[in-house]
Amino acid sequence: MSGSGGGGGGGAGGPTGGSWAPPDSQIDCANLRFETPLSSPNPTVVAQIAVGEVADVELVNPQPDVTVVGVLRRNPTQDVIGTITTRLRELLRCIQGGTDYQAEILEISGGVVRVKVEPR
User: Fold this and answer.
1) What is the end-to-end Cα distance of the chain in Å, rounded?
2) Fold classification of 26-119 (topology level)
3) DSSP, res 31
4) Average confidence (pLDDT) over 22-46
5) Residue 80 confidence (pLDDT) above 80
6) Reduced to 3 states, what is the DSSP secondary structure of residue 111?
7) Nearest Cα residue to 58 out of 113, 117, 9, 2
């Protein structure tokens, strides 16, 4: 069957991938905080950042019909360090709703960059 899902409570969701997220009406954007490794970190930019640096979390468009949540350096060119895929649905809704986020660089180990995402 097709359709738009519908409400209803509970349920285990489905094989949609990603982590469980509360219904949109229950997302507390002001308290959305989590740690995550970045997806697709840019090695050139990673070589220029340091643990403790704070970056901006914003919607970016790498292709015309694609929007992702990127972690951007706070420099004049706003270089993309990497992207966030953890808690993506919640984060997208909150950013689109007007909440600004930042990401503190917690760890850089080889090609892995771990950040703490929180409201500004």
Assistant:
1) 42
2) Alpha-Beta Plaits (3.30.70)
3) G
4) 88
5) yes
6) coil
7) 117
State the burial class of residue 18 (Cβ atoms within 10 Å of its Cβ: 0-12, 13-18, 19+): exposed
The residue ranges of every structural domain in the chain are: 26-119
Antiparallel, parallel or unpaired: β 34-37 and 66-72:
unpaired
Contact 19, 86 (CB under 8 A): yes
Q: Looking at the predicted structure, is the pLDDT value of residue 6 above 70? A: no
pLDDT at 72 over 50: yes
Q: Which two tokens stand for residue 65?
A: 């019909």
Mean of per-residue pLDDT scores for the chain: 83
State both tokens at 83.
């992207």
71 with 61: CB under 8 angstroms? no
**pLDDT exceeds 80 at position 10:** no
Nearest to 81 by CA among 31, 36, 33: 36
Residue type, 78: Q
d(CA 104, CA 106): 6
